[in-house]
Amino acid sequence: MKALHFGAGNIGKGFIGNLLRKTGYEVCFVDVNQEMIDRINRRNSYSVELLDENHTVETIFSVSALNSIIQEKRVIEAIVSADIITTSVGVANLSKISKVLAKGLLERIAQNEKKIDVIANENAINASSTLKKEVEKIVSSKELAQINSLVGFPNSAIDRLALSKKGTEGDIALVEPFFEWVINKSEMVNFDLPLISGATYVEDLRPYIERKLYIVNMGHATTAYLAFLLGEPTIQKALRNQNVERIVRSAMVEASQYIIRTYRSDSEKMTEFIEKTLKRFKNSNISDDILRVGRSPIRKLSYEERLVKPARELFKLGLPVENLAASIAAGYLFDSPEDEESITLQGYIRSNGIDKAISHFSSIENVKLKVMIKKYYDKMKNGHIVNC
Ligand SMILES: NC(=O)c1ccc[n+]([C@@H]2O[C@H](COP(=O)([O-])OP(=O)(O)OC[C@H]3O[C@@H](n4cnc5c(N)ncnc54)[C@H](O)[C@@H]3O)[C@@H](O)[C@H]2O)c1
Ligand SMILES: O=P(O)(O)OC[C@@H](O)[C@@H](O)[C@H](O)[C@H](O)CO
Question: Which segments constitute the Mannitol dehydrogenase N-terminal domain (predicted)?
Fold first, then answer.
């Protein structure tokens, strides 16, 4: 069995490629980072270190890699012969892989009528559907009908802290012991393959992806943005500050009300989930850079994303959102010269002010909610985090 995976980054190697190999797939990565591609091909393997007390290092064999730009023909051939296609390139990069994917799928359809699923594993609601929409932009209506009949784009939710460190033979993928890969079975078309080892298949993905994005990723982003204000370099160091931990936990509790009300989730189980997630964030075997976790603040502050969606929905219901408002405000204060979106965001705020920025990037028009966010923005802009 052959798997083709776009994105040989932290999640690609540490999580998705790793589970695909354990299921018995040969894994071919597609990336744009030539150094990474060469490293994988030199060894036909890579290393994954488990971030627990033992730091066990595992070698993942039978892997190879291609460059999606300079080896397009070979990527198309690999799409033709693949049994499953997966991605973890970052949601903003899905539009960049859609062209070669569309070409490959059409070539595959011309050569055989085998069904295939394409799963985009990104931190976003319905990333596979987003990828499909990008493919739709490129192909004709006749080609789209062919794709629709043979290709599934099941959505998924993935959860695992995945980082990397430099080793003597190249990057070592670092992963926490916990993982969750949830796949929407009702959107799959190919049922002839073994289930992916360790993945969970569900009929309705929404409760899983919303819980992941609006509680786990919201809490993570909140920690990163508060840490930035305090000058703390890692998530773990920031969470040693009780004030940070209290605001993060409170924001997670606020956001959990959205999940509890939307999906009638059990509130005790939700409390356990929040505590377990905080424990994962605090894992002392991990040193997670806040610039990684806070990366792309424009994406994270957008309307449907982790910080704004729960705040908007709860505010509409008249439920507490003070801590979520403080998280959004902290996001608007994330000022990292290493992050392109942060540079754009801060440039916009300097030229237009925070009020306009909240409308422009988060599309929040509710005046009372905007005032609340602005209140925290003003209180925190001198680097002090506040009691909500
Ligand atoms: N790292 C985590 O803890 C984690 C956990 C869950 C979900 N995610 C999600 O997984 C996705 C990947 O995150 P990551 O942390 O692995 O990022 P990463 O930057 O480590 O990896 C992304 C990889 O995609 C490659 N890439 C970019 N554009 C490409 C293109 N056009 N064609 C082929 N490859 C391309 C990059 O070169 C890089 O190797 C993101 O959507 C992220 O939100 C990450
Ligand atoms: O990948 P992003 O930029 O959407 O979010 C950064 C982190 O919060 C994220 O990568 C987490 O580590 C991960 O989602 C945990 O499963």
Answer: 1-194
User: Does any ligand 1 atom lie closer than 6 A to the CB of residue 65?
Assistant: no
ipTM attached to this prediction: 0.99
Domain boundary (186, 204, 222) is at 204
The label of the residue with tokens 């033992």 reads 54
- With respect to residue 388, please indicate whether it lies within any of the assigned structural domains: no
What range defines the domain where residue 293 resides? 207-380
Query: How close is the Cα of 40 to the center of ligand 2, in Å?
Result: 24
Among the bound ligands, name the one nearest to the CA of residue 97.
1
Domain membership of residue 34 (yes or no) is: yes
**Does 89 lie in the same domain as 19?**
yes
Which one of 169, 185, 204 terminates a domain? 204
Q: How far is the CA of 2 from the centre of ligand 1 (A)?
A: 21
Alpha carbons 137 and 102: distance in angstroms, whole number:
10
Q: Which atom of ligand 1 is nearest to the CA of 12?
A: 16
Kindly state if the Cβ of 93 falls inside 6 Å of ligand 1.
yes
CA of residue 217 to ligand 2 center, whole Å: 6
